[in-house]
Design brief:
By secondary structure, the protein is an alpha+beta fold. It has helices spanning 2-28, 48-54, 58-61, 127-170, 176-204, 216-225, 249-265, 297-302, 318-328, and strands spanning 32-37, 43-46, 87-95, 101-113, 116-125, 212-214, 233-238, 245-247, 271-280, 283-290, 332-338, 342-350. The chain has three domains: 31-125, Beta-Lactamase (2-Layer Sandwich); 130-204, Signal transduction histidine kinase, dimerisation/phosphotransfer (DHp) domain (Helix Hairpins, Orthogonal Bundle); 212-355, 2-Layer Sandwich (Heat Shock Protein 90). The chain is built from nine helices and twelve strands. Strand 4 and strand 5 form a beta hairpin. The longest helix has 44 residues, at 127-170. The protein is elongated. Residues 354-360 have low confidence and may be disordered.
C-alpha cells in the first residue's frame, strides 16, 4: 500500500511538473496556440500570444466560436471538420478588436482527448513578411518599368532610322547612291536593334559557367589579341603568369575585353593602360588602370545600372554583364575614378577549384 501510494504521489508530482513546463512553454512562445472543440468550433483554450494577436482578453475569446476571430469567411468550410483533411497549413485572416484584418500562417491538426475531438491551431503573424513582399513587388515592378522605358528609348532610335529609310525607298525617286545609303541605314538599324535585344537577353539569362584552370596573363593576352589598340595608346601588362585561376575562360576574357575597350575609348587623345595583378589570400586581384578622362561621381554611381551609358552608340549592358559574370565566379569588380586623371577597374577572382561554382 505504501509503495503504491508513493508511486501515485510520484506520478502526480511528475504530471504537475509536466503541466507546469507545458504552461511555461505555451506562455512563452510567440506563436498563438488555440484549442478548439471540433463539435461546435468553440475555443476552449488560448495562450497569451493568441490573445495578443486577436486583440481581446481571455473572457471574450474562450467560449467564443473560432470563426468570430479567425478566417470569418470560411464558416462551413473548415479543412478538418468539413473537408476532411488531417492537417491544414494555409494563410488565413485574423480580425482584431479594431476590425483590422491581420494575415497569419495557420496550422491545424485534430486530436482526441477523453473521447472528444479537438482542433489544435497555431497562428503566426505574417504582417511583416507580407509588407516585405509588397515592397519587393513594388520595387520589381518599378525596375521592370524603368528597364522597359530605357529599352523602348534605345530601340526607338534605330527603328525611326529604319522607318525613315523605308519611307524614302518607297518613293522610287532616289539615286542609286542614295538608295544604297538608305539600305545601309536599315542594315545598321537592324543590327543595333538586334544587339540591344541580345545584350538584354545576356543580362537577364542564367549564367552557366564552364570552369577551367587558366593563368591570368594568358587570359589577358587573348583579350588583347581580340581588340585593336590605337598607336597613340601604350599598353603595359605586368600580370602574374604563375598563379592558377579556376574560371570560365571565355567569360573572363569577355570581361577583360570590355574593360580594355572602355579604357581605350576613354583616351581619344592617347594615353597608357597598365594591367597589374597580385595574389591576396585566396583571391587574385587584377587592376586595369588608364590615364583617360575619368568619371564624375554621378556617373560612378550609375555605371552598374543596365542601359546606363555615356557613349553615343553605347547600350549600357557592358559593365552590368561583367559584374554578373565576375560575381558568378564568387568574385568582385569595383571601379575607382578621378575626372581628368583616369580610372582603375579592379577584379578579384578566386584561386583554385574550391572557390568556383558551376551555376549562378
Amino acid at each position: 500500500m505504501d509503495r503504491d501510494l508513493k508511486a501515485r504521489e510520484q506520478l502526480k508530482s511528475t504530471l504537475t511538473d509536466d503541466m507546469s513546463y507545458l504552461g511555461t512553454i505555451l506562455n512563452a512562445v510567440q506563436t498563438g496556440i488555440l484549442m478548439i472543440d471540433a463539435a461546435n468550433h468553440t475555443i476552449v483554450y488560448a495562450n497569451p500570444a493568441a490573445f495578443q494577436l486577436i486583440g481581446r482578453p481571455k473572457e471574450l475569446v474562450v467560449g467564443a466560436v473560432c470563426h468570430k476571430f479567425i478566417c470569418p469567411a470560411e464558416v462551413g468550410k473548415c479543412p478538418i471538420t468539413d473537408i476532411g483533411q488531417t492537417i491544414d497549413n494555409s494563410e488565413r485572416i485574423v480580425i482584431d478588436a479594431q476590425g483590422n484584418r491581420i494575415p497569419v500562417l495557420k496550422t491545424v491538426v485534430s486530436t482526441v482527448t477523453e473521447r472528444r475531438t479537438y482542433l489544435i491551431e497555431s497562428i503566426f503573424d505574417i504582417r511583416e513578411r507580407k509588407q516585405r513582399e509588397q515592397r519587393l513587388l513594388a520595387e520589381r515592378v518599378a525596375a521592370i518599368a524603368e528597364c522597359a522605358g530605357m529599352v523602348a528609348h534605345d530601340l526607338r532610335n534605330p527603328l525611326q532610322g529604319i522607318a525613315g529609310a523605308a519611307y524614302l525607298l518607297r518613293s522610287n525617286q532616289l539615286s542609286p547612291e542614295k538608295r544604297d545609303e538608305m539600305l545601309r541605314v536599315i542594315d545598321q538599324g537592324v543590327r543595333r536593334s538586334n544587339a540591344i535585344v541580345g545584350d538584354l537577353l545576356d543580362y537577364s539569362a542564367e549564367i552557366r559557367l564552364k570552369l577551367e584552370e587558366a593563368k591570368p596573363k594568358l587570359i589577358l593576352q587573348d583579350a588583347i589579341d581580340a581588340i585593336e589598340i590605337p598607336e597613340n595608346i601604350a599598353l603595359n601588362v605586368l600580370a602574374d603568369d604563375q598563379t592558377t585561376l579556376y574560371v570560365d575562360i571565355d567569360r573572363i576574357r569577355r570581361v577583360c575585353i570590355n574593360i580594355l575597350t572602355n579604357a581605350i575609348e576613354a583616351m581619344p587623345d592617347g594615353g597608357m593602360i597598365t594591367v597589374t595583378s597580385r595574389q591576396s589570400e585566396d583571391k587574385m586581384e587584377i587592376n586595369f588602370t588608364d590615364t583617360g578622362v575619368g568619371m564624375t561621381k554621378n556617373v560612378l554611381e550609375k555605371v552598374w545600372s543596365p542601359l546606363f551609358t555615356t557613349k553615343p552608340k553605347g547600350m549600357g549592358f557592358g559593365l552590368p554583364i561583367c559584374k554578373r559574370i565576375v560575381e558568378a565566379h564568387c568574385g568582385s569588380i569595383s571601379i575607382a575614378s578621378t575626372e581628368a586623371k583616369g580610372t582603375t577597374v579592379t577584379l578579384n577572382l578566386p584561386i583554385g577549384h574550391a572557390n568556383g561554382r558551376e551555376f549562378a
